[in-house]
Structure formats: C-alpha cells, structure tokens
Fold:
Amino acid sequence: MLNNKTIAVVVPAYNEEKQISIVIDSMPGFVDRIVIVNDMSSDRTAAVVLQYIENDKKDHYHEQIGKTEITRNLYNEAEIVLQKVRESESDFFTPSEVVNKDPGKSRIILINHLKNGGVGAGIATGYRWCLDNNIDCTAVMAGDGQMDPSELKDICFPVVHDSIDYVKGNRLRHRSAKHVIPGKRFFGNSVLSILTKIASGYWRVSDTQTGFTAISLSALRSIDLHRIYKRYGMPNDLLVKLNIASCTLKEVGIKPVYRIGENSKMKIPRVMLSISWLLIKGFFYRLWIKYFFRDFHPLFILYNLSFILFFISTPFAVKILYYLFGQHTGERPILNSILFMFLIVSAFQSLLFAMWMDMQDNERLYK
Structure:
C-alpha cells in the first residue's frame, strides 16, 4: 500500500516465459496485487506464473480485497443501475478466466484470455478486475521487463497522494532518450505524440506510446473499459477517453529501457497507420461528445467551420492547378484565385482559433 491506498500492477503478457520472472521478482513490496493477463500465449508463460502462485507465502502485506456489494437505499439507485450496466458489458471484453482459487487472498492474480485479444485487450481485462475489486491505484507494466520497477513509486505517488487521475511515464525527458531509443521508434513516437496531442486534447503530453502508467479508481469508473482499443493504439485511445471524462493527467520522467532480452512484436509501419486512423476518429469523437453533446463550446463551431471551408476551397484549387499545369490558354481564373485565398485564409484562421481555445480549455487537466 501507499498512503493507505491499495496498489495493483496490471501486466499484459504474450509469450513472455523468459521475461515474466524478472517482472514478478523485481516487483516492489508496496504492490498489493500483481494482475498478470496471459493473452493466450503459446509458450510456458502461464505455467511460470502458476508456479509463483503456488509458492506464494501470503505475507502480511497481502491486503485481502474483494468486490463490494451495494445495499439499496433511497439515494443509491444510480449506483445500482451503473453496477448492472457494468455487469452487462462483460460480453464485450475478451473472454477470460481467473485461474486463482481464492484471488481475494493471493498477491499474484493470473487471468487467462481464452482467445488472443491484443495488448490493449489485456490491459482492459486487468483494469476491469481492479475496478471490480476497488483497487485505489492501478499501474501498468509490460510483461517483458522493459520498465524499471524502482520508478513505480514515482508513477503511483501522484495518484495516491495528489489525487491525479492518470499518470504516465515520459522517456523523452531523459537525456539518453535519443541515444537509447531505436531511431525508428523515436521518430514514430514523436509523430504519434503530435497527432495524439490534437486528438486527445492533452496538448502538453509527449511520449504517448509508453505503457508505464497509473490510473485512479475514479478514472476507471468514468470510462467504458470495454471500448478501449484492443491493440497497440490503446494508450492513445485511452487518452481521448480520459479527456472526454475531464480526467487530470501528469507526466513523470522515466528512463528508457531497451536491450534486456525483450522481443518486440510491434510492426512499426502498420502500427503507425492504424493508430493514425484511430486518432483521426478519436478527434472527431471527442469534438462531438465533449464540446457539443455534453457541454457546448465555441471551438466546436470553429473546428467544423474550418473543415467546411477547406472542403469548399477544393474545387477552386483544382481549377487554379488545371490552369497552371494543364497548358490551358483561356482566361486567367482571377475570381477563382480570389475566392480560394479568401476561403483558405478563413479556414486557417478558424482552425488556429479553435486549437487555441482547445489548449486553453484543457490546460486545467494537465498537472
């Protein structure tokens, strides 16, 4: 525990039989639960974790936990309805089973996916278990040992002490980042971080692809866990959902860790394309849900006006290009040029004002 708050670490694992022991053995003592989600590995990942569970001596720091039953009264109808809604969402998660005979008393929890779901699906399954068991602070660490456990306290502390909703590590702050992080990953991370700023509304966030994070119980309750993106774009998608829920965010500097035996399963070009499309959809979803349906804001008009003006200016741009490069000898398209310049300048002005308002509105969420 930290600051009298329960701590759990979700560890998504896929074919990590050689690395998972490093994660378990190095886990700090203040961690109450290590929730390992085995994403239908084809190796001995599950067997290795089971051996740890059998050898678990249930030391005194293993805080007993469990689901809290809600007793109906005059004022908690909303909580009871919400609980029923969460129970009905079970079918939308990747099918899984908890292996532990008595998970309430075990420090290491093993959850086996019954079909491969992806890293995002594994984290969502772990989040759901922590939410059901009222864990105050839930961190995420990769199953390949690529995150330094000595930095876990720094990640969790803002959640349990300062009531921050979501804390994420930032490797780019470390002076060694450009030397340690592989060049392709550094470039891809930088591009996706820019796109994520725009899509999520957390304009000061960077190193969006790190999975070393911690989230509060209230933040878990505020989002639809079953809708979390199931693959490598999960951190980006989660930031969009957290922003819509007006969750506070803080970044903590961490060191980049590579070349310790991990075997990356990420195909960078494919991942960048899929995440970019995910972020485009996430941007428009945030725009409509947060700034139109939930609480109207002028930036909604300005953003959409800019897109409409860009669209209207396209035919005029085509006519101008046809005249310049199509060997056309007719009359110069002066009127088309004037209309195009008016539309494109107005579009850029609307876009810049919308982005400025977006930054100002979300500044309060970044701590």
About this structure: The chain has a mean pLDDT of 90. Residues 297-365 form one domain. The first strand starts at residue 7 and ends at 13.
